[in-house]
Write a structure and sequence with these properties.
By secondary structure, the chain is of the alpha+beta class. The protein has a single domain, classed as Nucleotidyltransferase, domain 5. Helix content is about 60%, strand content about 15%. A hairpin with a 2-residue loop joins strand 1 and strand 2. The chain starts with a strand and ends with a helix.
Length: about 160
């Protein structure tokens, strides 16, 4: 499971950290989910993010793989929510379009754009690049939502 942390100051994005939480294929599914949980708890404790975002699930032809992905996503949603963070979800095509301009970009295009948008960033894995793309998408849409909410509040005061 990839993870990425960025800093957002105004419209400036900067890379903080990225990586991958892994689990041992020799363990049971329940034990692997615990490994994912422990890894994400550690990332949140170390970096103290202000919010979190997760990619929504996509439909897979392999039902067993889709079910396992759903269980891992549950961990990714639960861990930050338990710490009191707001957790947003974004569709894969929305993330790709936000970062690359194309909703059908491939993994290499995503990695290249993430490393371009976040100066001096070197992604540690394909999964980490995807996670940073989710973070960039989240920053973009949270910024837009904040702008609209501020404008709406001004109109209501007028």
């Amino acid at each position: 499971m990839g993870w990425g942390v960025i800093d957002v100051t105004g419209n400036r994005l900067s890379h903080v950290a990225n990586g991958t939480v892994t689990s041992s294929s020799k363990l049971s599914l329940a034990e692997r989910l615990v490994e994912l949980e422990e890894g994400l708890v550690s990332v949140i404790a170390e970096h103290g993010p202000a919010s979190a975002a997760v990619e929504t699930a996509f439909v897979s032809k392999d039902a067993a793989a889709a079910l396992k992905l759903g269980q891992a996503r549950a961990v990714a949603l639960l861990v930050p929510a338990r710490t009191g963070l707001d957790v947003a979800e974004y569709a894969p095509n929305k993330i790709k379009k936000t970062v690359t301009g194309s909703g059908h970009a491939d993994k290499q295009q995503i990695k290249m754009m993430v490393e371009t948008l976040l100066a001096r960033c070197q992604t540690k894995s394909e999964h980490a690049a995807d996670a940073l793309a989710v973070a960039i998408c989240h920053a973009h849409y949270r910024s837009a939502i904040s702008y609209v909410e501020t404008a709406d509040a001004r109109v209501k005061r007028a």
